[in-house]
Amino acid sequence: MKLAVGGDHAGFPLKGPVIEKLKAWGHEVTDHGTHSPEPVDFPDIARKVCQQIRSGQAERGILVCGTGVGAAIAGNKYPGIRAAVCHDHYSAHQCVEHDDVNLLCLGAQIVGDRVAFEILEAFLQARFSTAPQFRRRVQKLHDLERWAAQEILKEDAR
């Protein structure tokens, strides 16, 4: 699988082992930084990862920050991106199976390497369900994105 990976300075200690494990599992990984523990703003890294997913150059993405929360907030600002914070195995596969999540957000200050690897494995092996109720709900998310964008345009025009 082609994957886009990034993280801020708080996620830096976990990002390296995550990338090594992903490559060891045979995935093609693009590392969007950061490449040091020097402070960096996570929205800048999230932009790069999300752009790669949106363009189809990556099938899924992984962002690592301190808690995963900031990364998820940033990721969910982009149309077509469905980001989820997952710190357990169940959520990692369920979010893909039911919600077609394409951006996994991890908290380096919450999980260690071993748990992160279990989460990654569950996330990457999961597939979006063909059950009609899940397809319908994700379509409603797409519809909500379009509606919100139109509402913003109307507000800006006023």
TrEMBL record:
EC number(s) per entry: 5.3.1.6
SUPFAM superfamilies the record matches: Ribose/Galactose isomerase RpiB/AlsB
Tagged with keyword Isomerase: yes
Enzyme class of the recorded protein, top EC level: isomerase
Domain of life: Bacteria
Annotated active site: C65 (proton acceptor), H98 (proton donor)
Annotated InterPro entries: RpiB, RpiB_LacA_LacB, RpiB_LacA_LacB_sf, SPI_LacAB/RpiB
Statement: the UniProt record of this protein carries the keyword Isomerase: yes
Keyword terms of this UniProt record: Isomerase
GO-annotated molecular function: ribose-5-phosphate isomerase activity
Pfam families linked to this entry: LacAB_rpiB
A GO biological-process term: carbohydrate metabolic process
Family: Belongs to the LacAB/RpiB family.
NCBIfam families reported in the protein's UniProt record: PRK05571.1, rpiB, rpiB_lacA_lacB
Stated name of the protein: Ribose 5-phosphate isomerase B
